[in-house]
Design a protein that fits this description.
This protein is 35% helix and 0% strand. The protein is globular and about 65 Å long. By secondary structure, the chain is an all-alpha fold. It is built from 11 helices and no strands. It has helices spanning 2-16, 36-42, 50-61, 80-85, 102-108, 125-136, 153-162, 169-180, 194-199, 226-233, 249-260. The protein folds into 2 domains: 25-136, no CATH class; 153-293, no CATH class.
Length: 302
Amino acid sequence: MILRLLLAGAAGLLLAACSPAEHIPKTSLAMSPEDPGLKTVLGKPTAVAFADVQKYVTSKSCTQCHDSVKKTNGVDLSSYAAAMAGSNDRKFVIPKDALNSPMYNVLTAEGKRHMPPLDHPQLSPDQVSLVFMWIDNGAKEFPDSVVVNPGTLKEQLQPYFDHPENIDYGVVKQYVLGVACMKCHSLNGDSPDKDAIMNSADMTSYKSLFSVFTPVVVIGSPENSKIFQAAAITQSMPPTKDGYDPIDSLRVKMLRLWILNCAIEDKTKLPGEVLTPNPDNPEKVRTCPDPSTGTGTTSPAP
């Protein structure tokens, strides 16, 4: 498993070293014609603003389906506010991190996840580069907007890795489930897959993860939890055959630490908690309920 995670991380580094154009899937369909003005915009990467993306990309190839009225798959790119807000727990744009931003990823994905749909005219390399450039330079609303650097994913997650007792369902939902799972595996998602929800995994709420029919979390045991198995061991989810990328190894680590430390629902509901670190496993800081007590390892503690 560790080797798989290391390989996934290495693949991410190699991807980051490539230029945006190198990620664009090859297609025989006609691409959008180049606009001379776009070359000028690309020459000033730090000044790229949402109006440029709107003019050269979204208004031409996106908002026919992804506007404030249709919102296909929950996506609205008709305004800066809508694009940055995302949908439910899913963010479309992660400033300064184009490679992990769905708005950019779908432009370079393979299969049915690719946008525009493969039976439609495709974006030109310059248009794809513009989206990459806009996000990686902070996803500015205006050319002179001041961008607050949110930090790398590792910088954001490191405090939780240092203190895994603070990882609760809300944190996992923000950094893992909402990013990689809940679009399809939630009744509140943008594209709920009812078959998957009924027969595989329902991530609509904390309690639904422990459904008596299809529990996906075994408290205290990541390796026996279906959600961890799919994300890290078999890497069957998200489905790469549909153009989705494997879950980042840092997010997988957070998921593992959460389950290992009893998959708690809300840290604030555990006032005065006395932690019981395991000297044989420094990452395990909490003793989980004993299955023999009746709470079981596949049900949340009362």
